[in-house]
Amino acid sequence: MADTPIIMFAGQDKGVKNMSVDRHYDIVAAIETGDASLARTTSREHMDTAAANLVA
């Protein structure tokens, strides 16, 4: 149970909303720049926001 992703406990509505395509555009755009640091930072910020949304 400790390895179960938090999204499984957030409920279907929050989980689906959190996986929307719109939430991932910034990550794709950052990767497309070829700037690894920007892509890394954008991904981390995305995951932090996703976690916060799921436990809110």
What does this structure look like?
The protein is mostly helical and 56 residues long. The chain has helices spanning 7-10, 12-18, 25-32, 36-55. The chain is built from 4 helices and no strands. The chain is elongated and about 35 Å long. The model has no long low-confidence stretch (mean pLDDT 83).
Outline the fold blueprint.
Layout: H1 7-10, H2 12-18, H3 25-32, H4 36-55
Q: What percent of residues are in strands?
A: under 5%
Number of continuous helical runs: 4
Tally the beta strands: 0
Distance between the termini: 20 Å
The geometry reads as elongated
Q: Helices and strands: which structural class?
A: mainly alpha
User: How confident is the prediction overall: mean pLDDT?
Assistant: 83
* Count of discrete domains: 1
- Using only C-alpha atoms, the radius of gyration works out to 13 Å
Order of helices and strands: HHHH
Give a short summary of the structure.
By secondary structure, the protein is mainly alpha-helical. The protein is 70% helix and 0% strand.
Structural features:
single chain, mainly alpha
